[in-house]
Amino acid sequence: MAHHKSAVKRHKQSLNRAARNKTARTRVKNAVKAVRAAVQSRDKAGAESLLPAAASVLAKAAGKKAIHRRKAARKLSRLTKAVNAVPAVSA
Questions:
Q1: Burial class (CB within 10 angstroms; exposed 0-12, middle 13-18, buried 19+) of 34
Q2: How many beta carbons lie within 10 A of that of residue 61, not counting itself?
Q3: Whether domain 5-85 has CATH 1.25.40.10
Q4: Rounded to a whole number, what is the distance in angstroms from the first to the last CA of the chain?
Q5: Which whole number is the average pLDDT over 76-84?
Q6: Residue 18 and which of 12, 28, 37, 60 are 20 to 30 A apart at CA?
């Protein structure tokens, strides 16, 4: 346990940041999972509508340094490729 006042404060801050980062990373996982599920079920319209929301969540997490900016870009790129690979339903 920390003995100095400043060390106690730093410990509290680190716990708060860890909780904030965990929330952001969980949001990222859920957004990516939703898009992947739409792609898996070959729902192109649904996947295309979920993709901008996932992009927003990824950008916010990267902006808050919860995930690395290149990781966010890589995830978005792979999601976009997956959505574009879904065949359009011919009516």
A1: middle
A2: 24
A3: no
A4: 66
A5: 97
A6: 37
Q: State yes or no: pLDDT of 50 exceeds 90.
A: yes
- Spell out the residues 6+ positions from residue 38 whose beta carbon is closer than 8 angstroms to its own: 46, 47, 50, 83
- Smallest CA-to-CA distance from 83 within 25, 50, 32, 44 is with 44
- Structure tokens of 59? 């950008």
Is the per-residue pLDDT at 11 higher than 80? yes
Each domain of the chain, given as residue ranges in start order, spans 5-85
**CA 45, CA 34: separation in Å to the nearest integer?**
13
pLDDT grade for 2, boundaries at 50, 70 and 90: confident
Burial of 9 per CB tally in 10 Å (0-12, 13-18, 19+): exposed
